[in-house]
Amino acid sequence: MSQYMPPDSVYGPLFEAVQTEHIFPDSKTFVDCIPRVAPGLALERYLASKDDPGFNLKDFVLEHFELPRNYASGFEADSSRPVEEHINALWPVLSRQADEDVEGSSLIPLPHPYIVPGGRFGEIYYWDSYFTMLGLHSAGRVDMIEHMVDNFSYLIDALGFIPNGNRSYFLSRSQPPFYSLMVRLLLEEKGEALLDKYLPRLEREYAFWMEGSSMLGHEKTAARHVARMPDGSLLNRYWDHSDKARQESYGEDIELAGSTQRDSRELFRDLRAACESGWDFSARWFRDGFTFSTIRTTELAPVDLNALLYHLEIMIARAYAWQGHEDKMEAYRQKAEQRKDALLYYCWEEESGYFQDYDFVHGQPTGIPSLATAFPLYFNLATAEQAERVAANIQRYFLKAGGLVSTLIHSGQQWDAPNGWAPLQWIAIQGLRNYGHSELAGEIRRRWMALNIRVYENTGKMVEKYNVEDMSLLAGGGEYPVQDGFGWSNGVLLRLLKE
């Protein structure tokens, strides 16, 4: 996989010119382009002609590159038919077949078919895919689920981890570790024997997230994805191995860096780490709870990440139990229990009644409530009393006309109010059900489904995110327009419809 070089390495000054001169409204456009000629030749021609009178950079790019396809954007929907039919008609539209290796393309080829989210997202995304799989499961498409799990297994084998997406510019980070949940979903259909196949991949995934633990010393309290708490226990954080401006958002990052006195490398690392979280972007990561330039993702032990890694530890223990390795099973169960104890101690905020991200640099919870508070309920980590208080707070503060908001802050970022997102609705609904709060879970389900169906009937589209506070409006905020398609919205709604 090392042969897949990111666009800045392939195109150098051409990449810099395209991204800083904003010849496309979306910085992701150029890094997803496919060259019509050999990459070296495109760069050579650019260097030879860029100073010529009348040289037009956009014309040059359009001549030498094929623009990326927007999946599902041109799909002709018939909003008079039920939304379930619409979603099932979209599966082939959002499907990619096994990829070919194209010189100069940022796409990392995958050996099996897969579903992309839609719109500007023409590659597989790690955590998106689990929620897409929920819908595929309801649609009886176990074959596609297995293809996608095997693609992620291929990436683990080739890279040692699952990147954010199968693009060369994502090779420095991952995304929320849902692989163990994907395997669990497949086991429901195929049986425990599959654990023999996936156990080595589960362990490599775990090794990737825990790699920093061997680097911790007396003075070093955090390394890579791992941070040591004051009592010596370990929790994880989001982290990116690069500290450069994101290639797919290059212009935006350079502009933000120019607006603050912060060290640009530190800023870029925190931006990238927030992208690994999937919540890009949210006031959840901001030191002052509002200002983008105060982002400090790498200083936090997030609730959701550590709940997911607890599940990964439990799944590895389950696999070893299946194989009869009692000692290894017990070792991973102990790791899971230690993580559970640390999460409940450091991330539970008794006064407010929320699970919050823990700021291990300053030794306190962030004080910023978010819907990540539902993750310990989803994985049955919370006590009954904690779940009772979380449920009350969700009902009182997060529940809006169209479902649940991600945070209570109107920052202009897409993972804040007034927006709601399909994966967080699912996590909250299932988490509340785990603790007997079925009435509240049912109300969230009803409101979210009604909003999805209303937008579909009015626009003929399923979209990436929804405004849950004002049901007459599409969602907004963020670095790009609302995308239609849309993988995880389709998956969660279809699963909820089928219940």
Could you explain the architecture of this structure?
The structure is a single chain. The chain has 499 residues and is mainly α. It has two domains: 7-66, no CATH class; 83-241 and 274-498, Glycosyltransferase, CATH 1.50.10. The protein is 47% helix and 7% strand. The chain is built from 19 helices and 16 strands. Strand 11 and strand 12 form a beta hairpin. Helix 10 (195-210) packs antiparallel against helix 13 (303-323), helix 13 (303-323) packs antiparallel against helix 14 (326-346) and helix 17 runs antiparallel to helix 18 (438-459). The protein is globular, with a radius of gyration of 22 Å. The two termini are 41 Å apart. 52% of the residues are buried. The model has no long low-confidence stretch (mean pLDDT 95).
Please sum up the structure shown.
This protein has 499 residues and is mostly helical. It has 19 helices and 16 strands.
Descriptive keywords:
499 residues; mainly alpha; Glycosyltransferase; 2 domains; 19 helices
Uncertain segments are none
* Amount of beta strand: 5-15%
State the helical fraction.
Answer: 40-55%
Number of helices: 19
The total beta strand count reads: 16
Strand order of the largest sheet: 5-6-7
State the CATH class of the largest domain: Mainly Alpha
